Structure prediction request, 288 residues.
Amino acid sequence: MASTTPDASAAGTLTLGGDLEVRRLGFGAMRITGEGIWGPPANREEAKAVLRRALELGVNFIDTADSYGPEVSEELIAEALHPYPGGLVIATKGGLKRPGPGRWEPDGRPEHLREACEGSLQRLRLERIDLYQLHTVDPRVPLEDSVGALADLRDEGKIARVGLSNVDTAELERAREIVPVVSVQNRYSVADRDSDPVLDWCERQGLAFIPWGPLRGVGPDGTGVIGRVADAHGANELQVALAWLLARSPAMLPIPGTSSVEHMEENVAAAALRLSEEEFGELLAAGP
Prediction:
């Protein structure tokens, strides 16, 4: 890859809900917290430097959640970036509780989602959240009740747009009967494509698809198809994996996360990497 300053704008843009344009390479702010996504990071100032560097590199979509830390990621975003520059979109999520490091428990009760959203508003120092997402479906709570709570928050002006995470197409259809849904965040990478049907559905319906774990299953071992493609571009395997996602669908909005400024720069550099049709097809055929 050419040694130019990375710029997320090279990834192009997509529109959330028909009226909110963002660049198609964002930043996932989960890993700026402590080990196990629990507690503060080892170096708070470095975590804030990562966030500031993201904006310097043209990133204007940051994804977080109240459960990251818990609360730590949102607090750091506000500490590092508030007052927010125009055009920056901060998306957050509610619906998971954290009883301890590495532990995640769904809670889709309407009262919990309201409390979670209001807490996020305070921590992020926002009057309204541009994109608020249900973090997961709670099997103990009817989906309609959880989504209905987000619809109420939208009607009250506390959130502008609703997204869903960790859902299938049937759940999407049910949710869309209650409130407009502008995005889906499911696990997806070049090596993990179980959500292909959801991605294709999002592309047909005009929703953004935000893959979490966009580098899952990809290792810098220099072997196989992905290693060969990386060598051909003077890139690394992780950059090729991000470039593949961007080429996979115009609905794709990858949000690679990191706690390192250096890795942030490498990730954003992938926005300018263009795979040939043959390279894309080889990676597609290689399979998970």
